[in-house]
Amino acid sequence: MAVRRAAQGRAAAGAIAGYVLRIARESADRTQVAMAEALGADLTTWQGWESGRRPLANMKAGALLDLRRRLLALGSDPHVLHLLDPAMDADRIIAATVRPEEGAPRPHPLADWVHTRDTAHMIAWALNGRVPPGLARRPAAARRGPVARAPLLPAAERGAFFSRLQDMAESAARKGQGGLLLHRQALYLCAYDRTPEAAAWMSQALHDRRDLVAERGWTPLWPTARSTATALARLGDRRPLMDFIDRSIAGHDAAETANLNYWAYWLGSIREPQPDDSFMRLRDGNWEPLRLLHGLAAGLHQAPAYIDLYIHTLWALLTTHMWLPLADPALTDTLHTHTARLLDHGGISPRSRRELSTVHYVLGENRT
Description:
Elements: H1 15-27, H2 32-39, H3 43-51, H4 61-73, H5 78-82, H6 84-98, H7 117-128, H8 133-136, H9 155-173, H10 180-190, H11 196-207, H12 222-234, H13 239-249, H14 253-266, H15 289-302, H16 307-320, H17 324-327, H18 329-345, H19 350-365
Helix pairs in contact: 1-3, 1-6, 2-3, 6-7, 9-10, 10-12, 12-13, 15-16, 16-19, 18-19
């Protein structure tokens, strides 16, 4: 698929991280001039960081660490500062996709690192303007003059991004197991392209691999099968996801472990970056159960297409960590009310209804 590059309209290499930095400054209620003075930095340097013309990722590690700590001391919101890492990762993925000729020959970031939900949200922000959940509740700061509402890619670069992603997904699929990680992650990001042509391509690409969902229990292709089933659900076909839960997760210890580990990483309960999917098989996964519970509870509201998978994972988490409802009574009350509402309204599979009933019971028994 040919890529058409526009003669004009090009995003700065560090635009997403720069935009997050601007929000961090605004959370401290400081102007660019005031922040630059407080840090002892040149104003043009600060403006370059915010615009992305001077990518934060190009700073020396020690200097970047010092900047973040000083911003925290000056009153910047720590939750916003936490998003600088996924924002820099998103900038790197977009640059490597749209402008591959500008970097040294190396594996694409989607081929040598498992990206997280926060990174995916940052990429979506640049592609379609949807504000990441971690920033959505922040009040909009008063700004002078015309200011971009999101670090959006120009239309030509957005088209190039999706075109190259499709090429990468197709090429990786032909490489067998050596291309599994790149294929599934590129395919996931392709779903952000809402054009009719992209939807048709996506549907065909997913249905070509639909047979993976029929595999029972854990196999090396399990992560790809999971991504295929969830992507089809996002397109409106929930049947493959329900089949995947029944055949490839439920009742298989290794697959149940992989599912919990995957969610723990995706939702930030596993903090360490992962270079490939092998971490999913670790039985002693070092993750925080309460943080995972918070993420799954939020997902019940935010991702109705995956509700059956959220319910099964909640059930698996609470039946293996029975103490969790006692760790956060407020969350337990909220989740107990929401599960009751879901049971009343239906729209879930028979398995999900049984598991949700168990979740609702466990929550109710542990309410304070």
